[in-house]
Structure formats: structure tokens, C-alpha cells
């Protein structure tokens, strides 16, 4: 069985978190979801050797304490974390926020507007298709290609 996509979701809004969990639950056989509510908790988890590294980080832009933009900056500045894709999301898709996100190397920006559930589904389907196969799966692919 292929490895599941591990998504780290950082969201402080209970309503948006519940909606995201509902969307992710439809793909629970292929997705491992870890949820946190603050940027500080996310950074602590990312540096915790007991926690497996996520394949992608999905973070709200407006978080209490460390914002999603600051979280993005710290992840991209850390050589141990920089390769992890970070997707920011906000109900306030002000063009200056979107521009700042991409300038700080966000992989994408989701608008938590009326079509938030559809955006989350598209996010999941994209990352499920784009995820890099595990080393064992890659070996199997290589063996098949050589046969």
C-alpha cells in the first residue's frame, strides 16, 4: 500500500477547521492530517524529532501570534524544512497578502471564500497526484523500468 500524504494544517477558526476536517475525511485512506491552531505550535512540531515531517503544510494567513506569513518565512529559512511546500489560505485574499505569500516562496494561496470546500478538494487532489513516491515505491518503479 502506498504511503499516505501527510498534511500539516494550521487553522485557528473552529468553523474553517471543521470544514477542512470534513473535506479531508473523504480522503482519509490516502491522507494523514495533523491539525494545530497556532504558528508557534506548528514550528515546535516541525522541530520535534518524534513527529514525522509533513509532505505539505497548509496554513491560515491570519493566526494568533506567529502569522502564516511569518511561519512560511521561518520554514523557508530553515535548511531542514525549506523543501516542504507551504500553502497559505485566507478569507482576506487582499492582493498584497497574496503577493507577499508568493514573494516568500509559498507554493500556492487559497481563498477561503464561498468555494472553500472546493478549493480544499482541489488542493488535496493536486498534492495526492504530485506527492513523491516513498523510497520503497521508487525502488519498485525502478525495478519495473529495468525489467
TrEMBL record:
Gene3D superfamilies with a match to the protein in the record: 3.40.50.2300
Modified residues (4-aspartylphosphate): 60
Residues covered by the Response regulatory domain: 6-127
Any matching Pfam family: Response_reg
Organism lineage: Bacteria, Thermotogati, Deinococcota, Deinococci, Deinococcales
InterPro entries registered for this protein in UniProt: CheY-like_superfamily, Sig_transdc_resp-reg_receiver, TCS_response_regulator
Keywords: Phosphoprotein
Protein name: Response regulator
Domain of life: Bacteria
Range of residues in the leader sequence: none
Amino acid at each position: 500500500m502506498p504511503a499516505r500524504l501527510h498534511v500539516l494544517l494550521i487553522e485557528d477558526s473552529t468553523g474553517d477547521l471543521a470544514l477542512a476536517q470534513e473535506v479531508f475525511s473523504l480522503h482519509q485512506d490516502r491522507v494523514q492530517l495533523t491539525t494545530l491552531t497556532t504558528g508557534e505550535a506548528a514550528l515546535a512540531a516541525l522541530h520535534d524529532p518524534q513527529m514525522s515531517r509533513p509532505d505539505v503544510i497548509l496554513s491560515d494567513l491570519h493566526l494568533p501570534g506567529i502569522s502564516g506569513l511569518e511561519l512560511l518565512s521561518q520554514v523557508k529559512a530553515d535548511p531542514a524544512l525549506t523543501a516542504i511546500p507551504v500553502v497559505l489560505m485566507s478569507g482576506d485574499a487582499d492582493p498584497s497578502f497574496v503577493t507577499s505569500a508568493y514573494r516568500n516562496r509559498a507554493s500556492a494561496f487559497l481563498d477561503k471564500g464561498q468555494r472553500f470546500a472546493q478549493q480544499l478538494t482541489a488542493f488535496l487532489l493536486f498534492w495526492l497526484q504530485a506527492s513523491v513516491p516513498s523510497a520503497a515505491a521508487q525502488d519498485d518503479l525502478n525495478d519495473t523500468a529495468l525489467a
